[in-house]
Amino acid sequence: xxxxxxxxxxxxxxxxxxxxxxxxxxxxxxxxxxxxxxxxxxxxxxxxxxxxxxxxxxxxxxxxxxxxxxxxxxxxxxxxxxxxxxxxxxxxxxxxxxxxxxxxxxxxxxxxxxxxxxxxxxxxxxxxxxxxxxxxxxxxxxxxxxxxxxxxxxxxxxxxxxxxxxxxxxxxxxxxxxxxxxxxxxxxxxxxxxxxxxxxxxxxxxxxxxxxxxxxxxxxxxxxxxxxx
Length: 229
Ligand SMILES: C[S@@+](CC[C@H](N)C(=O)[O-])C[C@H]1O[C@@H](n2cnc3c(N)ncnc32)[C@H](O)[C@@H]1O
Prior knowledge:
α9 (136-148) links the parallel β2 and β3 (154-157). The chain is elongated. A 5-stranded parallel beta sheet has the order 3-2-1-4-5. It is built from 11 helices and 5 strands; from the N terminus they run αααααααβαβαββαβα. The protein has helices spanning 6-16, 21-27, 32-39, 49-56, 61-64, 73-78, 91-99, 117-124, 136-148, 183-195, 224-227, and strands at 107-111, 128-133, 154-157, 169-175, 197-206. It is α/β, with parallel strands linked by helices. The structure holds S-adenosylmethionine (SAM). S-adenosylmethionine (SAM) binds at residues 72, 74, 85, 90, 112-114, 117, 133-135, 138, 159-161, 175-177, 180, 219.
């Protein structure tokens, strides 16, 4: 993985923690314009600011300076030969197929496709699939899975915090991802997804929830609530 510039590291970590530029600025007693300048790489934080900034972003000064590659938790989980989520498609994929069978290559967008099991399944069934994930490791494994299954699909790394569809899809699918987006941004996101769904299309989105009567997700972490309010 290429080393990121300091501004890019700050931006990435801030978003991973679900913080706005304003919130980060407030916690450091500085203006949001200063944060914005760091993030667009037009200024560097002062040396005295680095320890405070590293603490606020739950990272190290080395990582801020680009000496350590910043990997997501999922990069770590996906960094194995085995497929972390297995290879069987999510049950929802079958429900989607019943609603919109692939009588023609319907366009599918898989948001947060992980290692690509569902995206590749849809492609094998004849859908025209676009899929992305924040994890570079995930995308690499999805590409290998697609190759192994001899299917073509558009796979790329993107961050749902920034990415919005720029074309229409018949099916917008996402499994276990949207809870990473802070509540304040979900309405705008859902509106954008709706606006990019064909008239006869469908949205199938599932999320992890915190309910005592529902079994914990396999990747549940104690600090999940704190990180993703
Ligand atoms: C629970 S996993 C689900 C993966 C896949 N949908 C599946 O069911 O196998 C959550 C996925 O969301 C991705 N993710 C988390 N935050 C993201 C973001 N901001 N943008 C894009 N993907 C994100 C993670 O990298 C991870 O692959």
